[in-house]
Design a protein that fits this description.
The chain has helices spanning about 1-20, 35-50, 60-70, 75-80, 95-105, 115-120, 120-130, 155-160, 190-210, 215-240; strands spanning about 55-60, 90, 130, 140, 160-170, 175-185. It is of the alpha+beta class. The longest helix is centred in the last third of the chain and has 30 residues, at about 215-240. It is found in: Membrane.
Amino acid sequence: MKKLHLITLGLMMFSGLASAAGDAYIGEHVQTNIRSTDSLRNGARTFMNYCMGCHSMEFQRYNRVAEDLGLTEDEMMNGLVLTDAKFADKMTIAMDPQDAEQWFGKTPPDLTVIAKARGLDWLYNFLINYYLDPTRPTGWNNLTFENASMPHVLWEFQGMRKANFNVYEDEDGNEHKEFIDFEVVEAGSMSEQEYKDMVRDLVNFLDYSSEPAQLIRMSYAPWVLLFVALFTFLAYLLKVNYFRDIH
């Protein structure tokens, strides 16, 4: 648990440093529903197939995810897990950190608590705001996190786009660029809304993984409210009884 807290703090510090370097572009706000089992399952499927090749989730276990998402062991291990991992294993990856740093310039971070460190809107906009940039080693850049080392792994779904900017100079001669819009270069296999729905489900799953206990907490909420209502009613009856002879 102590190690988890340290990693959360580290990610938050990294997020703060990135924000200090420039304001992140947040063009849309995401509306997730962590109570939607279908959304969480879709997000888990996307994560297992397209994110887990590079990003681990080492503070989460397959059996815990299966239990929370209402999946059997067979559905989890044969339907979602693409490695020879065991049901009770942590969600780690085989990629060597040194190799990852050589390939990408830095080791891809563990994503267990990334939703807490970055925020849901940031994650959503990061995943929908990739654009072609031939000056970058990967050929991609990102409007929300400029010069990100992560390539656009979901490009086949979203397609290829280039970003149009308005470049201008201020009174001091400093150059600035203002985002105008995206221009589609090659359409993806999904429509714009379908892709955004897929990303929304992925962000929803990352939100759940950052604090799985929130599902339990939310399940208790109706009973807590019922108890409060009942206690308030009984307290009112007690008050009436105490003060019935006082005029």
